[in-house]
Write a structure and sequence with these properties.
142 residues; 60s Ribosomal Protein L30, Chain: A; 2 domains; elongated
Length: 142
Amino acid sequence: MTRLFLLLTAFVAAGCVPKTSYPYVDLVDQRTFWPEVERPDPTKIKPLPKLPLAVIRFNAGAADFTQDLSAAVEAALIRKPDVEFNVVTPVAPGAEPSKASARDATDVAHVIAEQSVPTERIHIGTIEDSGAAAREVRVYVR
């Protein structure tokens, strides 16, 4: 009797219970909680804003960004080997980028190029943004 009890306990613990003996036993999955899950209407889905891969601020006393940027670039390359990088400097509307901002963007582009990214896939530019920090570089992927 004890052997039979132990054998049944082992089957129950392993999940090998036949449905005929216990009809209420079933695997737990998404249908258990939401049996009538519907797909949302594609016209009601708003696209997410394009977020940068990295935002680098060149403040006084700012930490070295090369390690973190290299890790982010490596992760992007693993996910999509032919990824292209846009290195942009935000400027006030109608303003020209300063020489320091242009140098910062170039420095960031050099760090990306050091990760064996061909220079044809690194694009440097500006973007108009009135709320950006004084010296900031954003890296976008596409």
